[in-house]
């Protein structure tokens, strides 16, 4: 049994005009204990909604969740709000994209790290503060005993993201969901935060679901990759496999759109590849392949019949009628 | 911080000076001649002239203003034209009921309005929210004296839960003191509760959209912690500001409320003084109210640092 098994997850939102936005539409994936899985895709593909759905942070209504999210065998969608609170920040925790706004400006760093500890482990105020100092040391913040009494506005963006990581890891979660943890940071800080996450992952042993649109981050941190498009999974493979031989035209397009270092110097001033068109509106049910409208290889078949997720190579699935099948049986 | 307090206290001096100038000018702006009033209907012009001289009304404006200010700085607010008692003593006799009324109203308003506003924001759009907002509109639009008479009719005359009117000094026990103040405080607090509840709701609505509220939920914080620890502390500065500004409402409302409930406080003193054109008393009371208002708002400004660590003086 995997640590997290998401099956046919559907997160829909009722729109004010009476329609339904199918932000996540039938997503299935699993995460093994200690594993790092990246979910990639462009803006609006449903990756953040997926992460929020796992912790049930989607306001209902207007949101509506269906399918199942089994964490250690328990279906999170069937738990009461009270039981869910015991899981949040304790067994599953989350790091958000915006470190500048994700910390409460009027509570001290120590209070914010200590809160989860006091809530889930019943620590006293002084125990929680001692543990907060320990966590700050762990995430590499200098002078932790002093920092613990400070407030978010006294810290830089990178420092704040370290504090967010300290909050997330305080209760030794089994699963850490990181929603674009480095997007808002500048490049040198990004590298530091990624290093820190990798380092802590080995020490703490938590599984990580990394939500990102940055393929560089994926290559560096993830073991397995799930590519999402228009609320669905279109491809999944181990990271080396995906970069070596992407099967789905969307993934191929994504990888083609990554600039290569030095490409402007070697004389071949080729235009950076792009995927033409826009993500389709999720308010109508899409017939056929979700990517058909932007796919260079799309045919009548693609527009009529939705492709099933098929194993195209060992442990490599893609949802495309025309993706080349390698010898799976072997 | 200390330097800031000193600066703020010094900054109240020009404010108070302008208030003093205005208060003093009342004597010249307002219609009616106090000397003629005191002299009565039967007086000859010579009598009036004599009284005017004894009051010092015949001397130049600036001279009299200067003298008046120096007297006030020594703690002397003059003598009532009507009762011949020192104004400071008259105020001292009347200050307890008014202060009691204001403190009880303030306490009642904050403890009712803030939770109402928080719940309304939390359940925004629900019938609870609409109920609170309807109550707030009602609080704004029904005048104190209407609420006051209705309350007195139902809760004092019909149900006999509270005394109809009057005031019992604090020294005679908290119970009697409070029972006399409940109805006036509710009547006076209506507008104030409406104001605070609305601001609390609006500010909380904004705060609840913030990313750090999501972080708190992701940590497993319950609704109560989320609302009252994470959100309310962030919403505190606008709420406290409105509480401070609203003290002016209380001062104005106290005058009417004291009349409705026959409370022998400063409000009644003010009304009586105005009716009798008892200028020294009017001046003294207005100066006192202005001073209290300035002081309260200074305290409010200083309290910001308690709620928001980003504010430093």
UniProtKB/TrEMBL annotation, chain A:
Pfam families: ABC_tran, oligo_HPY. One of its GO terms (cellular component) is plasma membrane. It is a peripheral membrane protein. SMART domains: AAA. Gene3D superfamilies: P-loop containing nucleotide triphosphate hydrolases. One of its GO terms (molecular function) is ATP hydrolysis activity. Its main location: membrane. GO terms for biological process: peptide transport; transmembrane transport. Keywords: ATP-binding, Cell membrane, Membrane, Nucleotide-binding, Transport. It comes from the Bacteria. The keyword Endoplasmic reticulum does not apply. Residues 4-255 form the ABC transporter domain. It is found in: Cell inner membrane. Belongs to the ABC transporter superfamily. This is Peptide ABC transporter ATP-binding protein. It comes from Teichococcus rhizosphaerae. The lineage of its organism: Bacteria, Pseudomonadati, Pseudomonadota, Alphaproteobacteria, Acetobacterales.
UniProtKB/TrEMBL annotation, chain B:
The keyword Transmembrane helix applies. Signal peptide: none annotated. InterPro entries: BPD_transp_1_N, MetI-like, MetI-like_sf. It comes from the Bacteria. Keywords: Cell membrane, Membrane, Transmembrane, Transmembrane helix, Transport. Residues 95-304 form the ABC transmembrane type-1 domain. The keyword Metal-binding does not apply. One of its GO terms (cellular component) is plasma membrane. CDD domains: TM_PBP2. It is found in: Cell membrane. The chain crosses the membrane at residues 9-30, 99-122, 134-157, 177-197, 235-261, 281-307. GO terms for molecular function: dipeptide transmembrane transporter activity. It is a multi-pass membrane protein. Belongs to the binding-protein-dependent transport system permease family. This is Peptide ABC transporter. It comes from Teichococcus rhizosphaerae.
């Amino acid at each position: 049994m995997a640590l997290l098994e998401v099956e046919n997850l559907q997160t829909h939102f009722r729109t004010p005009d009476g329609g339904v936005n199918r932000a996540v539409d039938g997503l299935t994936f699993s995460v093994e204990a200690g594993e790092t899985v990246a979910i990639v895709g462009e803006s609006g593909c449903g990756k953040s909604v997926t992460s929020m759905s796992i912790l049930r942070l989607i306001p209902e209504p207007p949101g509506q969740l269906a399918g199942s999210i089994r964490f250690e065998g328990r279906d999170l969608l069937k738990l009461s709000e009270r039981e869910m609170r015991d899981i949040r920040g304790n067994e599953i925790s989350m790091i958000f994209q915006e470190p500048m706004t994700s910390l409460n400006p009027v509570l001290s760093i120590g209070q914010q790290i200590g809160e989860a500890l006091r809530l889930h482990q019943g620590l006293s105020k002084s125990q929680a503060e001692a543990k907060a100092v320990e966590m700050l040391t762990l995430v590499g913040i200098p002078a932790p005993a002093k920092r613990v009494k400070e407030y978010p506005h006294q810290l830089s963006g990178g420092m704040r993201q370290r504090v967010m990581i300290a909050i997330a890891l305080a209760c030794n979660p089994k699963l850490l969901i990181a929603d674009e943890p480095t997007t808002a940071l500048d490049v040198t800080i990004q590298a530091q935060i990624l290093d820190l996450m990798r380092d802590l992952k080995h020490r703490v042993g938590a599984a990580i679901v990394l939500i990102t649109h940055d393929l560089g981050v994926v290559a560096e941190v993830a073991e397995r990759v799930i590519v999402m498009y228009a609320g669905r999974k279109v491809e999944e493979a181990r990271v080396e496999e995906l970069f070596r031989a992407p099967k789905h035209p969307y993934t191929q397009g994504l990888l083609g759109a990554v600039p290569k270092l030095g490409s402007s110097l070697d004389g071949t001033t080729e235009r950076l590849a792009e995927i033409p068109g826009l993500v389709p509106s999720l308010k109508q049910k899409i017939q056929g392949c979700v990517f058909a409208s932007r796919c260079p290889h799309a045919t009548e078949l693609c527009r009529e019949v939705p492709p099933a997720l098929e194993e195209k190579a060992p442990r490599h699935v893609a949802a495309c009628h025309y993706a080349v099948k390698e010898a799976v049986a072997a | 911080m200390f330097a800031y307090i000193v600066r703020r206290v010094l900054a109240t001096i020009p404010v108070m000076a302008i208030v003093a100038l205005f208060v003093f000018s009342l004597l010249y702006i307002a219609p009616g001649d106090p000397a003629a009033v005191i002299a009565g209907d039967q007086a000859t012009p010579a009598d009036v002239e004599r009284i005017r001289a004894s009051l010092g009304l015949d001397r130049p404006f600036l001279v009299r203003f200067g003298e008046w200010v120096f007297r006030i700085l020594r703690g002397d607010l003059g003598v009532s034209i009507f009762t011949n008692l020192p104004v400071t003593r008259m105020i001292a006799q009347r200050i307890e009921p008014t202060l009691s009324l204001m403190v009880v109203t303030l306490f009642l308003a904050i403890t009712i309005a803030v939770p109402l506003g928080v719940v309304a924001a939390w359940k925004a759009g629900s019938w609870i929210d609409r109920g609170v907002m309807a109550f707030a509109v009602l609080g704004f639009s029904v005048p104190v004296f209407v609420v006051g008479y209705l309350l007195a009719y139902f809760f004092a005359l019909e149900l006999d839960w509270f005394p109809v009117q009057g005031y019992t000094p604090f020294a005679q026990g908290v119970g009697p003191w409070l029972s006399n103040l409940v109805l006036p405080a509710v009547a006076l607090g209506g507008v104030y509760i409406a104001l605070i509840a609305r601001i609390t709701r609006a500010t909380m609505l904004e705060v609840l959209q913030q990313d750090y509220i999501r972080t708190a939920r992701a940590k497993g914080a319950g609704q109560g912690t989320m609302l009252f620890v994470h959100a309310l502390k962030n919403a505190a500065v606008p709420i406290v500001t409105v509480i401070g500004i609203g003290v002016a409402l209380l001062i104005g409302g106290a005058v009417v409320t004291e009349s409705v409930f026959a409370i022998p406080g400063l409000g009644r003193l003010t009304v009586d003084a105005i009716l009798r054109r008892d200028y020294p008393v009017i001046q003294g009371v207005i100066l006192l109210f202005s001073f209290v208002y300035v002081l309260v708002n200074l305290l409010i400004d200083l309290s910001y640092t308690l709620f928001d660590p980003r504010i430093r003086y």
